[in-house]
Design a protein that fits this description.
The model has no long low-confidence stretch (mean pLDDT about 90). A seven-stranded parallel β-sheet has the order 7-11-6-1-4-5-12, sandwiched between helices. A five-stranded parallel β-sheet has the order 14-13-15-16-17. It has about 325 residues and is an alpha/beta fold. The longest helix is centred in the first third of the chain and has 17 residues. It is globular and about 60 Å long. α3 packs across α4 and α5 runs parallel beside α8. The chain is built from eight helices and 17 strands. The chain folds into two domains: about 170 residues, 3-Layer(aba) Sandwich (Rossmann fold), CATH 3.40.50; about 120 residues, Rossmann fold (3-Layer(aba) Sandwich), CATH 3.40.50.
């Protein structure tokens, strides 16, 4: 009997998180190469729709109806159900490298004493174990690592695989939640809907990022304007977040959100290593910066040397004129 891979599915606004579809595709490929099997897991207060979406990529999905996730932190409950599947034979767990996915992975490391390989940019199966590639030094080097035992946990970076549905949809198995969460679950006492966050950074096809060069919170008015005109989402560098100009939820980078949009537009972003790690997989990279030697020039497809408060409004006017006002 070969290895059994478990994919942790996450829900966002009632739908499967896009990155989880990529993780499922990668897991399916690994299982085929290893002569093993793969199963998905969705834990949610109303998991059916999300589980059906995940079943388009996997032969079997376990859907756990956990009402407590509506009022408590999700990761503790998801980890409890994942541990239950480990008791049934799961040997490897793959999760998206999102904030929630990392939380689940961390809890499982503590519960199972399994090894963890983080931020996989790709993976293959070699012999008895997966070999994981990860980008380091702002993408200037690629490491190849493997798990030393027969079990392990992998978190997957956006772009590690192209989401591809299976030839036939899998089955969905409904289950009740575990009696108690894997660790004490914090109670959610309030939820705040962030303005402009209708589409998540990870899901957006266009991301417009403001860096230290925007000068202050008022500078993000231009960033928001361009994001709106381009049908995109506003992001920020760590410097902007640390300065208190914009909430942490908008941060792009190694310690924030990992994005891979069709278009990345950076305004006043110099390109610190931790930021580049979080966005260098973008299909097209356009940057406006008055410093011609900014590190972003090394990876940009188009690097505009100029004052963003001159170039940015001109760009906005051009977009409007091409749309007829």
């Amino acid at each position: 009997m070969g290895p059994v891979l478990l994919v942790i599915g996450e829900a966002a606004d009632g739908h499967l998180v896009k990155l989880c579809a990529e993780v499922a595709t990668l897991a399916r490929t690994l299982a085929e190469a290893a002569g093993g099997s793969v199963v998905g897991l969705v834990v949610d207060a109303a998991p059916d729709a999300v589980a059906a979406e995940l079943a388009a990529y996997l032969p079997r999905v376990v859907a756990v109806t956990a009402p407590a996730t509506a009022d408590e932190t999700w990761a503790a409950h998801a980890a409890a159900s994942a541990r239950g599947l480990v008791d049934e034979g799961v040997t490897h767990v793959l999760a998206a490298a999102t904030l929630d996915g990392r939380d689940v992975a961390g809890i499982l490391v503590g519960l199972l004493d399994w090894g963890l390989l983080a931020n996989a940019a790709g993976a293959t199966w070699d012999g008895d174990a997966p070999v994981v590639e990860a980008m380091v030094l702002a993408g200037k080097a690629v490491t190849r690592s493997t798990l030393t035992g027969p079990t392990g946990i992998i978190t997957v970076h956006p772009g590690a695989a192209t989401a591809t549905e299976a030839a036939a949809a899998g089955t969905v198995e409904a289950r009740d939640p575990e009696a108690v969460p894997a660790v004490p679950a914090a109670v959610i006492i309030d939820r705040v809907a962030e303005a402009g966050a209708e589409v998540s950074l990870e899901e957006a096809r266009v991301v417009v990022v403001g860096g230290r060069g925007v000068g202050g919170p008022e500078g993000f008015a231009l960033v928001d304007e361009l994001a709106g005109l381009l049908g995109g989402v506003t992001g920020a560098s760590r410097a902007s977040v640390d300065a208190g100009w914009i909430p942490y939820a908008r941060q792009v980078g190694q310690t924030g959100k990992i994005v891979r949009p069709a278009l990345y537009l950076g305004l006043g972003v110099s390109g610190a290593m931790q930021h580049r790690v979080g966005m260098q997989g973008s299909e097209s990279i356009v940057v406006i910066n008055k410093d011609p030697d900014a590190p972003m020039a090394e990876i940009a497809d188009l690097f505009v040397v100029g004052d963003l408060f001159e170039v940015g409004p001109a760009l906005a006017d051009e977009i409007r004129s091409r749309r007829g006002g």
